[in-house]
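Can you give me the bound-state structure? Components:
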Amino acid sequence: MPFIYNFPFFSIFICMISGIVTPLLKNGKWAYRLSLFASGAGFVLSGILLGRIGPNNESFSFMMGHFPAPWGNELSVGPLEAVLATTVCLVMLMALLGGSRDIFEDVLPEKQKLYFIMMDEILAALLALTYTNDIFTAYVFIEISTIAACAIVMAKDSSDTMVATMRYLIMSLLGSGLVLIGIVLLYCITGHLLFPNLQLRVLDLASTGQYTMPLTVVVGLIVMGLGIKSAMFPFHLWLPPAHGSATTASSSVLSGLVVKGYIILMIRLFYKVFTIEVIRELRVTNMIFLFGLAGMIIGSVGAIKEGHIKRMLAYSSVAQLGYVFMGIGLGTDIGIVAACFQILVHACTKPMLFSCASALSAGRHHNKKLHALRGAAYENKLAGVGFTVGALSMIGIPLFAGFAAKVLFASATMAQPVKMWMTLLTLALSTVLNALYYIPAVTVLWSRPEEGEAGEKVLVHPAFAVSTVVFITAVFFLGICYQPVVTLIQNGLALL
Amino acid sequence: MRLILELILPALLIVCALAVTFSKRLLVSVVIYTSFSIIMSVIWVLLESPDLAITEAAVGAGVSGLLLIYTLKKIHALKGTSDE
Amino acid sequence: MEHLLINHYETAAVILFGIGFLNLLLQNNLVKKVIGFGIMDSAVYLFLASQGYIVGRLAPILVGEVANAADYINPIPAGLVLTGIVVSVSVTAFSLALIQRLYQKYKTVNFDEIVQLARQKGDE
Amino acid sequence: MSKMAKIKKEKQTAWQRFCAWVNGDTADRPLMPADPPAPRKTKTDKNKKQKTVSSRKEGIELNRFGSIYRICAVLIGVAVVTVLMVTVLQLPLFGSPDNPAVNEVVERYVEKGLEETGAVNMVAGMILDYRAFDTFGESSVLFLAVTCVTMLLMRDKNNTSKDEDLLTAREHVIEGYEEDIILTKIARLLIPCALVYGIYVVLNGHISPGGGFSGGTIMGSALILFAVSFGMIRMSRFFTYATFKKVTSCALLVYAASKAYSFFTGANHLESHIPLGTPGAILSSGLILILDICVGIVVACTMYGFYALFTKGEL
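Here's the bound-state model for the whole set.
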């Protein structure tokens, strides 16, 4: 076995071990450096892995221990997992850099170390959710990311973050309860926990018609549970307060990565356990499709009503997640490719928007109301440019990443006439709605401030500059040369 | 004997759960919840899982109950006891 | 009906799951919400463990030299439940700590009241 | 309260009082009638008034949303329960040996478990060797939980007011002088027993029921008993936040390192060079004993940490 195959395991363990070591460090600064190191190391390792298995189109499974598939834990790695893991690590690194100043301001000095433990563990959990080949391991890491996500929301320790955390915690617990009972039922009817064996048994059950009803229930429960945790439309109400009130880096990580972790797991379960044909036969995809469409509209409407810039961005996340669910709901390979691409796009855009928004408000005494930010872009030009690029990408202007995602969605629907009309109409409507709140926000930021309104010039923090430049590059990269990425995702999906 | 236990204990669990839901005092809920855990640990013995029985007795009836009671103390819900 | 009686542990587990689920959703009192979560999780574990039980077989601790798979019950559910119990006690501790902090701020553990008070504070 | 009612209340039998106590009606009367408690005005009263003053329109809006939410929640709950009930009808019968869960996996765990892991207790062998990655995740969950509780409850300027600081200082002084004689005598008797039993359960985790988690909880409760009966000050002579951090992190590090070693050797098909020992002996079953000890230490510290943070907000 080539040594390079150990890299996924290394990247997970580096993150977990840096979380464990962090309490022994001297202060928050060191913990911050260790977190940067962990996510950077994860990025380098996954990047090398991607460079190796992407072009060769390889996939492999990695035994966690001395025992092969039905007995021991396993990781499974292919091009799709490698792409996602690389993005996750990169976004984590950049979110930490972009939000570093706010972390040290918002979190009390003696608790900063603890905050970085949570960040490390979240990264470990996300990587584990992307790589794992075992359904119960997935559950354990879902719980890790739940607890750590709640912790990074409440780290700011103001009164509204506490209430938001409680709401988030309750909904997450409901979600994990449903996922857990789904997993238990699945175990009861199949007797396996590893994906490949589960798939064999599920196909067996589907072909003999035995346990059809329990199987449907299992799929429903798992989709509902993961849907609650990733803010699928009727269960999205917890998201805006939680993402809108947390500190910058937390908001970036939560809406850029954590909600995506569960969706990635859902896609992998659909392919590696239930197989997409069975899912289509059970008509689960149609439900997801409708919820996705509703989420696109409802999220945008919520954002239009919102005057608080971070909560506006959070509502926009609900809408963008709606796109992802719509793609999954199409139930075809090409739809899911579009959904994966949208995950990448959103993961690169939303953290940038969040960090730019709070950098803009830094000159206005951290007032995050939109009307208080008139002309703030002139005080911190880089943040203004970053916000504008992000907003244009979210609306879907050509050359920006969001446009490529929309094109993919539109072309994915061509095969299904009924879904095509619904998708195209909703896409158009949601583009208009997106423009309705992003364009005014950008105009406000770039209009000349009135007398007495202007804040002081803000020094651009080098870490923030690096992260914004990287994010802008990523947005243009995904918007212009998206073809290789899409091919990579397609190959990866075929190998799942 | 065993059959009777196997039928009574799950029924008791449900009774406990309902009592927790509908009792008005938090202290009562917590005490009933602890007894819920004890019944659970007897059920684990019946189901031939001694590992779980030990863990449930130590965690469900011990530590969880303790944490709940201390929370009640902190939120001043221990009315009518000398602890308030 | 008979099936439900034979599978009485599973039936009880489903009812308990429902009670816990509704408690978690409907109770205003946060402490009771947490207890409801505990009940819900225990119900899932009961379900899992009762599916692993086989009449007349021993607990999965070896007796004698040679192990025969037909003598022992399924050890997997027990292992999974053990992991699950740890997870739920961790979550319980975390949520109770959060409740204490909320009480410090708002002097109540009723979630509706807390939401309302927080909204008033936000408006000011 | 009218006079009649008062007389009536005094005439209640013990049984009625007990019923009322169970129902929770008797917030102001204890189970054993003692001196009547003085009427007090707590902060909650004030708060209730404040609540009624809150703006009416918002209340109505919240109520409407609340009732819709309630109906939806009940519907979802009932639907989930019904669906699960119907599912139970189709599941294999309780206790039958031809359950689909009994397959080649179980067979290997039971028949080869002793040979491959060296553990007599198959559950321990399964969670600490065959499926060890899960269990590592589980210990991390515990570590995360205690970190979160520290984040929330450890005293800092956000969660402590001056009064509370004074109150804690006073409690410390009282603790130093007063020792409950019954408690301390019994604690002296119980703590060593509990500790020894906890250590026994941990060390025998691979031979008999129990293991790191349950044994650790028992040891943790011994520590808690010590803190309850002798006070936190005496506890802090040998157990402070610094020790807590060091012990937990080191135990978890040993855990992670040994697991990483076994994963690495396993995946790369290298030999692991860890002797399994004689089955049934304490020093057997390779890494499982070490892992059990690490988990035991982590859990004991965590449980004590929960207690200390919940009561005093410090370790």
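A couple of observations. The mean pLDDT of chain C is 87. Chain C touches chain B through 46 residues (CB under 8 Å).
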